[in-house]
């Protein structure tokens, strides 16, 4: 018997879903697809979690998709993205799920990051 092929969303579809807050797409991913999604980065080095956080979608802000402490090309974590748009709900979610780290950004500012 042949193994069934499961449709796995393309990278651009996953980033579009993160931007639009489509949490259902992420919850439908199997373990292998979720594992691949964790390492995806867009042209700016941003993870799916960065995109969801900066787009203001708490329903799609799931650290299991990509780590709370992942950094983009500018050294920003998803926490910085959420804070930059003033979304307290996402900031609190990320703080609740994160780990404390001290990060020295390229701009030489010291931030406490979770």
UniProtKB/TrEMBL annotation:
Listed InterPro entries: Ankyrin_rpt (IPR002110), Ankyrin_rpt-contain_sf (IPR036770)
SUPFAM superfamilies per UniProt: Ankyrin repeat
Assigned keywords, A-Z: ANK repeat, Ion channel, Ion transport, Transport
The keyword Transferase belongs to this UniProt entry's keyword annotation: no
ANK repeat residues: 74-98
One Pfam family per UniProt: Ank_2
GO biological process, one term: monoatomic ion transmembrane transport
Keyword Repeat assigned: no
Region annotated Disordered, chain positions: 53-73
Record-given protein name: Putative Potassium channel AKT3
Organism the protein comes from: Cocos nucifera (Coconut palm)
């Amino acid at each position: 018997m042949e193994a069934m092929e499961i449709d796995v969303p393309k990278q651009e579809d996953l980033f579009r879903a993160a931007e639009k807050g489509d949490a259902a797409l992420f919850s439908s991913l199997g373990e292998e697809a979720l594992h691949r999604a964790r390492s995806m980065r867009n042209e700016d080095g941003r993870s799916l979690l960065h995109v969801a956080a900066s787009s203001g979608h708490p329903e799609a802000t799931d650290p299991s998709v990509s780590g709370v402490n992942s950094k983009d090309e500018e050294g920003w974590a998803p926490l910085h993205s959420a804070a930059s748009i003033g979304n307290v709900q996402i900031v609190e979610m990320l703080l609740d799920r994160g780990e404390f780290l001290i990060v020295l950004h390229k701009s030489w500012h010291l931030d406490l990051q979770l």
